[in-house]
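Q: For a teaching handout, I want to show students what a protein-ligand complex looks like in token form. Below are the inputs, and the small molecule is adenosine-5'-diphosphate. Please produce the holo structure.
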Amino acid sequence: MRPEILFPLFAPVQTLPGIGPRLSGFVSKVCGPNIIDLCWHLPIGFIDRRYSPDVANVLPGSIATIKLKILDHQPPKSRKLPYKVICGDNTGEMELVFFHSRADYLVHMLPVGETRIVSGKVDIFKGKVQMSHPDRIGLPEEASVIQTIEPVYRLTAGLTSKPLLKAIKGALLKTGVLPEWQDLTWLKRQKFPAWRDALLKVHAPKNESDVGNNSTARRRLIYDELLADQLALTIVRSLNRKKSGRIIKSDNGLIKKIMDKLPFELTTGQKGALNEILSDMAEPYRMLRLIQGDVGSGKTVVAFLAMIRAVECQLQAALMAPTEVLVLQHYKTLKPWGEYIGVNIEILTGKDNKAHRKNVLDGLINGDISIIIGTHALLQDDVHFKDLGLAVIDEQHRFGVHQRLMLNEKGKKADMLVMTATPIPRTLMLCAYSDLDSSRLVEKPAGRQEVETRAVPTTRLEEIIDRLKHTLDEGARAFWVCPLVEESELMDLEAATDRYKFLDSRFKGRVGLLHGKMKPSEKEKVMKSFMEGELNILVATTVIEVGVDIPDANIMIVEHAERFGLAQLHQLRGRVGRGIKSSACILMYSNPLSENARARIKILRETDDGFRIAEEDLKLRGAGELLGTRQSGLPVFRMADIVSHQDLMVAAKDDAKLIIERDPYLNSKRGEALRILLYLFQKENVVQTLRSG
Ligand code: ADP
Ligand code: MG
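A: Here is the structure, written as tokens, with adenosine-5'-diphosphate included.
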């Protein structure tokens, strides 16, 4: 139950004086349904109405608040002309100008012979002082209310600033002092005011910095929001940890057998990740771990060894990847290892023939198949496992949250491992994936080449082709990625086909085409010819964006690079530079380049560090877009901004962790106050779980 102290804040907006049903509809639409929502509707700017000149001395273009005597009304002679009200003070006359306004309203508001306070933007038009559509008109005794610095709020069609201002003022009057939930030392260090003081201050901005993201009052409120969020996540997470999973541990040596035979030594990052995974699996709770590693950092082998651990324990494992090309590739890499240790690995995609499909489905049910590698096809209803112990998802950002869950639910309390080659910036990790444990593969496997990155305008296509001729003669292998035309696969395909034809006319018989609409067998054939060097150029749509591993490829050409996101370009570039030959990435672009596209290309030329690129991407694009807003499960903050409040987010995370470690049920004095904070941000279900815990 919500604490009584918060009742006034959760009263509906229409309980405020002067807010009828119509207005409350609009207000709810912009701010939210309750009084507290109004309090959190923070100003986006302010208007200074303190300037109060005589009519003779007004500064054109300024906002002025002037005391005027109403002298005359001049209704327009035609609908196109404005309605004018002549007024003045003892220094001169001016006109108030209204277009399409109702005369009776104006007569009522500005009666001839009386004095009014009028505030708005003044100008000089044809030698006359004018104010068109004053923002405020009031009685002389209201001067002090009007002649102030007024906060400016985000509005919506149908809602003007005046009633919203009034509503927010009314809402602030309903707030009272709440017990302090923040740590006092922290408050002092940050110079944060108390909650209510912060609210009042934020809504009474005095200058630019008061409405900026860095005002201390604002940061206080934002920190409250972030702490409530992190606290809720931490509580849920500590609860989930206690939820039982299964103990998957063994030492019967299959892993060792593979390790001994690997043609390379695992990097420190890979070893670290593997250890974390294996010890998670050995614990009696359910694993949910993310492996983040740049393209080519070697995630597959780590996942494979984890799957082998499940197999050692007589369980099955599934690896789901977003494209058939990737599935095929994983299958081809892993199948021989399976044969070497006597573990049956099979493949399932949407395009398998009936007989194969039936065999696989049977094998999964009776346990003949230990490891299955597949696309979304794995999620179908008729796919059942004998006993799935580990679900692995490759390139997880290509799947929705529910798809990850669907695969997981094919097992009984199965552990889950998700992998991503799009590193997630630390801040996003905190707020969107805070329920996941994560391992990062930072360094690249030994022997990786630096890729020379160049940006070339499309107009220089012929030059590129000339240079390509030379390098191909020296045995180069090139990817040629075609533009992403909107979200249409069909149009991508057209562009790619055209480019393929063109290149084939220049490099007879050495060019292949790969796109999403091809049959797996066709895809495989083309990939194979490219891999074996029969084909030197592979024209592709973005199907090759994720995961494809062809060590001999050393040139990546991306057409219309300006249409790709930063992370995507980084992924594409990551396809080359894996072998011994020197590598290049050519970003072709069409002018004019937008500011943002220019910045993306610049960053790519500067760095190859996926984690840094991810941070820059976040800055350029904003969090929502980066994760595909809603479906990503990204929390939508009222006040906090994921990009500009990173420091607070990190602090809130640590704070929350400490709080729950010391006071898991929030029973201390601060704990009690923190419960109020959770209720304030409507995390009541979390508070409920505390009670049952
Ligand atoms: P990604 O992280 O992009 O999925 P992969 O798992 O496909 O990368 O690995 C890319 C390539 O690097 C593969 O050919 C793999 O065999 C190789 N590789 C993986 N780990 C190492 C290592 N420790 N040393 C050398 N090569 C490695
Ligand atoms: Mg991969």
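A: Two things your students might notice: Confidence is low (pLDDT under 50) at residues 628-634. Residues 264, 266-267, 270, 293, 295-301, 421, 445-446, 547, 549 surround adenosine-5'-diphosphate (ligand 1) (CB under 6 Å).
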